[in-house]
Design a protein that fits this description.
Layout (H helix, E strand, L loop, with lengths): L1 E3 L15 E7 L4 E11 L2 E12 L15 H17 L8 E5 L1 H5 L3 H12 L3 E3 L2 H15 L6 E7 L4 E7 L2 E8 L3 H8 L7 H25 L3 E5 H13 L16 E3 H14 L18 H15 L3 E4 L4 H13 L4 H12 L4 H17 L8 H14 L11 H11 L7 H13 L5 H4 L7 H13 L7 E3 L2 E4 L3 E6 L1 H5 L2 H16 L3 E6 L1
Parallel strand pairs: 2-5, 5-6, 7-10, 10-12, 15-16
Antiparallel strand pairs: 1-13, 2-3, 3-4, 7-8, 8-9, 11-12, 14-15
Helix pairs in contact: 1-3, 4-10, 5-9, 6-9, 7-8, 7-9, 8-9, 12-13, 12-17, 13-15, 14-15, 17-19
């Protein structure tokens, strides 16, 4: 029996089993959850929120001088996640996506927190990179923003980072994430809630210095519409409107709390400075959980207005949590951004597309032959294995010698829209292990899916001739001690190099204590 390598099709993700999907956003200031109903319309799908939860955890405030979450912040976070977990208890993994942002990107004990948080929530948690956060922020904001014919600027001032994005329609074009946020900035410049003009000036200058790195590119792109998302932007707009700081505006707004003006920001700043301490402020509409983080967020927003020459900004409710949902829905409808990213990387690094497709087809075919354990997300693993097959040679663009190390480095460190940090770590481990000795992986702290690595390495051995054509039917099996490969003896007699390579492969696995049986049939 033969297998002809001519095509591949592994980019499908099954649709949600229910019309409800949920996103969990573990932010630096607040933990948020939104549950939305998928509504089908003649023009496509929309999401209608049916339940939301928000906890003002202020996780970033719990980072100590060594960048570890302190005991109180750790407990606050887990207690919140347990509440979210109760609400999501009857949801399936295909209905929930949870992401974590800046504080859990930088905390040294983040892995310990995430491990306990996943048990409390009942679902995996992805720690996403800054630019991936920016992409998802734009996806969410663009679905809630008024229509615009030109470019759109979106700014999201979070607790530990601030995202700046320029896009067109629903597509983000330029994305940046800066390590300035309302919690961290307030702690740095407004300790214990004390406010004066000097501290405000220093806070604005520090934020402007960070923002200056993106000004040239953003002004060059230009925009016709400025949008603010996140709780900070919404709180600023509400305080400006409720306290009569709005000033004059050429924009006609049916809801005045949906607009931030330059004059309004300055008036709000003067009001805070006059109060001297945040606890003394008598601003109408100032919520208790916003009191300690407001001045830092305000200073960052003023700096953004100054550096980017913004006069006014509209506010949208949708932000990261809705972007996660729309991206999640896109994956279910076969519009997974990760496939687009992989295709772009193949083009950027000059990958031999036909060879990548051959390895993809064989590797995923092997994985499909293994039983599907109850705890395995087979569809996601098939997709990840396919991406590893398509990207395993990207390191050749740097050097042939040790190219697999270059491939792994790129996958681990590049900005890869749609991929979580965990996705990239798993991908990098497969790329590092697809060639060379296996001992380098056995001593690492990275999670290695040995079955997927076995499939990838075997596919590369079988596709060494880099030609489409007939190959023998291979049967792969796994037992408690290792793997078994059944292959035609007659075919191997005509392909001595392949037989030599298979025996060498078996020897590499046996050095790790695995069995690797070649069964001639």
């Amino acid at each position: 029996m033969t297998t002809t390598l001519t095509s591949f099709s592994k980019n499908s993700i099954s649709e949600p089993e229910s019309k409800l999907i949920a996103s969990v956003d573990l932010g630096s200031n607040s933990f948020r959850m939104v549950i939305a109903e998928i509504v089908e319309t003649p023009s496509g799908f929309q999401l209608r929120p049916v339940d939301t939860l928000r906890d003002p955890i202020k996780l970033a405030a719990g980072l100590d001088s060594d960048k570890n979450l302190d005991t109180d912040a750790f407990a606050r976070g887990l207690n919140s996640i347990r509440r979210f977990g109760e609400r999501l208890r009857h949801f399936s993994p295909m209905q929930v996506r949870a992401v974590a942002t800046n504080t859990l990107r930088v905390a040294r004990n983040a892995n310990h927190f995430i491990a306990q948080a996943e048990l409390a929530l009942g679902f995996p948690i992805e720690v996403i990179a800054g630019r991936e956060e920016a992409r998802l922020v734009y996806v969410g904001a663009s679905h809630g923003a008024p229509a615009s014919t030109g470019n759109r600027l979106v700014i999201d001032v979070g607790g530990g980072s601030t995202e700046f994005i320029i896009g067109h329609g629903y597509d983000p074009k330029v994305m940046e994430s800066l390590y300035i946020g309302c919690v961290s900035h307030s702690q740095r410049f407004f300790a214990k809630g004390a406010i004066d003009s000097y501290s405000f000036k220093q806070a604005e200058l520090a934020a402007r210095q960070e923002i200056q790195i993106l000004v040239k590119e953003f002004r060059k792109r230009g925009w016709q519409q400025a949008i603010g998302s996140s709780g900070t932007a919404k709180a600023l707009a509400e305080l400006i409107a409720l306290n009569g700081f709005g000033g004059s505006s050429d924009l006609l707004m049916s809801d005045p709390t949906g607009l931030i003006t330059r004059d309004g920001l300055e008036s709000l700043k003067l009001s805070l400075i006059e109060s001297e301490y945040m606890q003394n402020s008598e601003l109408i509409g100032l919520k208790p959980d916003r009191r300690q983080v407001l001045p830092g967020g305000l200073a960052i927003m003023i700096a953004a207005f100054d550096e980017l020459h913004i006069d006014s900004m509209e506010i949208v409710e949708a932000a990261l949590r809705m972007g996660v949902l729309y991206d999640f829905l896109g994956r279910a409808q076969h519009h997974d951004m990760r496939f687009v990213t992989v295709e772009q990387f193949m083009k950027r690094y000059g990958v031999d597309v036909e060879q990548a497709h051959r390895v993809d087809l064989m590797a995923t075919m092997f994985l499909d032959q293994f039983p599907n354990p109850p705890n395995e997300d087979r569809k996601n693993n098939l997709a990840l294995l396919a991406w590893a097959a398509r990207l395993h040679e990207i390191g050749l663009s740097i050097s042939h010698n040790g190219y697999h190390k270059h491939s792994a480095y790129i996958a681990a460190n590049a900005d890869m829209p749609g991929f979580s940090k965990n996705d990239q770590a798993r991908l990098a481990a497969l790329l590092l292990g697809h060639a060379g000795k296996l001992a380098k992986l056995s001593s690492s702290n990275s999670f290695i899916d040995w079955r997927m690595l076995f499939c990838l390495r075997l596919a590369i051995v079988m596709c060494r001739r880099r030609m489409s054509g007939e190959l023998p039917h291979l049967l792969v099996q796994q037992n408690s001690s290792g793997f078994k490969v059944s292959i035609s003896k007659k075919w191997l007699d005509d392909h001595p190099l392949t037989e030599f390579s298979l025996k060498k492969e078996a020897g590499d696995w046996e050095k790790l204590g695995w069995t690797y049986e070649l069964d001639y049939i």
